[in-house]
Amino acid sequence: MLKNSQKWLEINPQAPEAKGIRQVKAIFPEIEEALMLWVLKALENDVDISNQVLHEKAIMFASLYRIENFKGSNGWIGRFKKRHNLSCYLKQEEAASAPLEKLDEFREELQDLICGYSLDDVFNYDETGLYWKIEPKRTIFNKPVSGRKQSKNQVTILLCSNATSTEKLKPAFIHKYKNPHPLKNLPKSSLPVEYYWNVKA
């Protein structure tokens, strides 16, 4: 952004092309940045995104940053989408092959940000959902078996490592409940993960 500062200063704020420029300062910048990075990665991997998904991810990042006064209201989600020029579109078959033009620009900006750091100090995180009650799709039986509705119970796991894999942070584990029955009398500090909870996780 700094190397392009003159370009931004020369833009007429009343011009139509200026409408997509973010002008409102985010109230929760840590959550805002983390959520937008997740959105870009999700788009790159052709992951469907809804308002509910944005809400859940925002709440998750608030928990990770220990921000207790963040609600992730519909209003906040709406303003987040407006600040980043995000809209809901009806999926079309042809749209899947359309290039995501902003990703290349984002990659270049990211390279500019990390070029001055040692790879030992550059970290990347990824998350995955573990559906711990899901049943296998196949089973051994003596006749055709009708399928059952799969359980949606899941936990979210966050993994983080530096670029050289010489340092791996303690995994983050996000459950729906603060004290699930199997962990009722177990100190959270004794777990091999950083334990977080959120009713909408």
Automatic annotation (TrEMBL):
PROSITE patterns: HTH_CENPB (PS51253)
Residue span, HTH CENPB-type domain: 19-90
SUPFAM superfamilies in the cross-refs: Homeodomain-like
GO terms for MF: DNA binding
Gene3D superfamilies, A to Z: Homeodomain-like
SMART domains named among the record's database cross-references: CENPB
InterPro entries assigned: CenT-Element_Derived (IPR050863), DDE_SF_endonuclease_dom (IPR004875), Homeodomain-like_sf (IPR009057), HTH_CenpB_DNA-bd_dom (IPR006600)
Entry GO CC: nucleus
Keywords noted in UniProt: DNA-binding
Protein name in UniProt: HTH CENPB-type domain-containing protein
Native organism: Rhizophagus clarus
Lineage: Eukaryota, Fungi, Fungi incertae sedis, Mucoromycota, Glomeromycotina
